[in-house]
Every structure is written in C-alpha cells, then in structure tokens.
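User: Please predict structures.

Assistant: First:
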Amino acid sequence: MRYGRKHYAHMGATVNDEHVRSLVSYIARGAVPRSEYVFGVEIEHLPIRNGTGAAVDLYSENGVEDFLRALRPRFEPEEETWENGHLLGLRRGKIDVSTEPGAQVETALGPVKSPAEAEELYAQFRTLADPILTELNFDLVPYGYQPRTPHSDVRILPTGRYRVLDEYFGTVGSYGLLMMRCSASTQVSIDFSSEADSVRKMRLGSAAGPLLGWFFRNSPYFESGPSPLPLMRQEMWERTDPQRTGLTPGLFSDGFGWEDYAVNMLSTPLMVADMGGTPEHEGREKVFTVWHENAADIYPDRALNDYEMAHILSTHFNDVRLKQFLEFRHWDSLPIDRVRRLMEIVESLFCDDAQLDRLQHLLGGVREVDVLAAKADIQANGAQARPYGRSLEQWCELLGIRESDETDAFCYKLTNDGYA
C-alpha cells in the first residue's frame, strides 16, 4: 500500500487517505472462498400498457404504484420502501422488488447458488405479479428501451436521489436523461476470492462484455423508432458521464489493485451526496447535487462508514463495478429463460478456475485500447465485426454460446394487440 502520498486520479483532485483505507477494507470484506460463491441477478422491466405499448408511470391510475400496493400484502411489511408518501419497493426473502427512475420495475434475486434457483425465484415473483398486472392492464416487459414512448413523456420518480440525478445528468453527457427514464437492464453479480482474483475478473469481464452484449442484445427500439445501433445500452452509458461509466480507469495498467480503484472512486466528483448515514450532518439536507467536490470535500476526515462507502460506490457505473462483489452491467433487460442462460455462461467463464484460465489465455493480453476498438467494431459492423481479431461466430464457439443463444430476432415483438 502507498498511503501517505497525494493521489491525483483527476487533475487537481486529492483524496483523504483515511477514506482510501476504509474503502479498501470494505471491498476486502467481500472476498470469500471459492466454496462459498453465490450469484445475484437484477432484472429491470419496462411497464408497458397492453394494446398500445405506451409506458406506464408510477402516478397514473392502474399504474406502477397501484401494482406495488396490490402486491404489498404478499411481502414483508418491515422491508417496504416509502418516500414522499409513495410506495417504491418491497422485499420477500430473496426477492427484492424496487422502482427505477422512470418507474421501471426491478426484480433483484439472491443470493442464489445456481441459475436454476434464480429462475425459480423469478417464477415465484411472476406468480404473484401476473394476476395483478392482468387486472391493471399492463405488463412488465424485458426490453432494453421503451418501445413506443420517448423519454420526454416519462415522468421521474419522486425521490431525492432521482431528483438530483436528473439535475446532474441533464447537464452532463448526452444520454443521461434518456437512460434514467427509458432504459432497462439485466445485471449479474459474482463473488471473488482475493484482490488478484477480483482484478482478473474485472479485466476479463470488461473485455468479454461487448462480446456477450452482442449475443444477448435486446434493444430493438429507441425513442419511438428502431434502434440505430446494435449495442444501444453501451452507447447510452458511455455517453452519459465518461467520468464514471465505461471502462474503469487504469484497470488494464500493470499493478492495478484495490487502492487504485478506491482512489478513482473517491477522487471523481461525487455527483450526488447522501448524508443519511453521516451523523455529523444531522439536521442538514440529506441528499443534494454535487458538481465539483469529491468525497474528501463532502465527508468528514475520519474512516468512512458502510453507508457512506456503499453510496460512493453506487455513484459509478462502470462496465464491471466492484463492491463487495463484482457486478457485470453490460446487458439489456432479458426474459427469464435468457437470463438463466446468461447466468450459466457467466458461471462457466468466471466461476470455474479452469475456464477462467482459458478465458485468460484468450483475452489476457487485451489492453484498454483493444476493448474500445472491439466495442466500436461491433457498433459499426454488427455481425461482420471481428473483435480482437476473431469473427463473432468464432467467439460464439469459444465462449460456449449455443446457436440458439444469439438474438438476431429480438425476444419480444410489439404488435397492436400486445407482445408475441
């Protein structure tokens, strides 16, 4: 460790060494033996009105909050999430239902031991949810982007965090407001056993991300028309705020480790400050926009607590996000059968030592510039792309992807009568 020196991850930005120590310790607590590995998966759904394909929001009659209130009796009352008088989240065992900025409904499942267990939990959720959705005349659809409603017609949820993010993203980058209101994703989380193991998985996951993004793409629509790019989710996030999206800065540099990751997280302007877990700030505004200050400017000169560290990590959206687990963030929202297949591939590639070594052999020499080139190649050339010097057909075989895993035809097709 190199504590005691000043770190300049961004020009003119310094970080508090005590903050670095606490964040490294926080990440280290997530390391577990291989025998204890588990998974998590988050599936965001777009609420779509039957018969029209229009977005359904939180506030309207027969809308998303009506859905949550009807679902509420089957969930645990002590686990409910409320803000400004609105019900925004529910939990029941390993099933967590929450709402995203544009009223997307997220189902977080886990921790689970296998993809099959995740699929079973999701079936339990749909057994509870589907009769209510039928009565309310809308559905929860796995697309990467709203099919019929432009972002300007989607209202943001009434939370302090989303209000701040809306203000911030409205002035930074190109796609932040669209991403918040109209996009939906599938995210898969895995464990790591050590610092070296986590860094290797971050590098390989970042390199393989655009490949798996191609095979599991599911954004046929964008702003009421056809999607202009094959990996529209990738395009949106990379142009939302380059300070905190895309590849983790320095990830492919020799010697990169948890301290470097912590310094990057702490030196980036904070975007949104959440003081709900900071005792020194009782009586002051809990959530507010941060334009230029980083964590050292906002939080006290002491070790950060878990609430503060979890919040700081949540303000970055890199392709692979390191918390007390690794979160792969590449994929559009997918139907559950394809989520299970995606989890099976992630498990095979990243949770089996022999397979991870094989992936290291395939992608271990990749540099940051190579990953950026692979992303651009797929966006520009689609099925004819040759990322890392191989055809997509070759990568399909090398990554253990079946022909049926490819999504030349998207998972659902929108018709005047609904989805087929």
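Second:
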Amino acid sequence: MLNRLKEKWQVSWLQFALIFSTFALGGSLCGYLARQLLSFTAIERGTGYVVIYIVLMTILWPCCVLLISIPFGQFLFFKKYLSRIWQKMTGKPR
C-alpha cells in the first residue's frame, strides 16, 4: 500500500516520510486548535459540539497542513494536493 502511494505521488522515500509526517502533525494541530476554539464557547459536549467540531476541522485542516508543510519543505506538494481536492469537490478547474 505504501509503495502504491509513493509511486502515485512520484516521490522519494524521504519525501514520502516527510509527507506522512506533515499529514500527522497537521491533523493533530487541527484537532488541537478546534478543541481550543470550542473551549472558548459555552457549547456543552453533545450533538451540537460534535457538529461544530467537524465543521471547524474541515475548515482548519487545509490551513494546518499547509502551515506544517512549510518547515518540512513540502509546501508545493500540499498546495497541489489541496488544489486537486478542491477541484474534485467543486468540479471547477484549478
């Protein structure tokens, strides 16, 4: 499975490891920031909390991944990756 991703993305093993690290750290940062933002609200944990948390995660994730990709040197990869995701979601060309 990892070989298929590496070949699909056409990257070296080092770049592949940096990309996976960026995904992991960006996702963790996103979850942390979403929890911190929700702690400032009076929303109690329940259905509303979960819905708002998911919306925040959806909005914050691309920003967090791009931010983390800069020190890992993978900004161009993630810029293209997010552009392809946006194109698939909207059906609009880049």
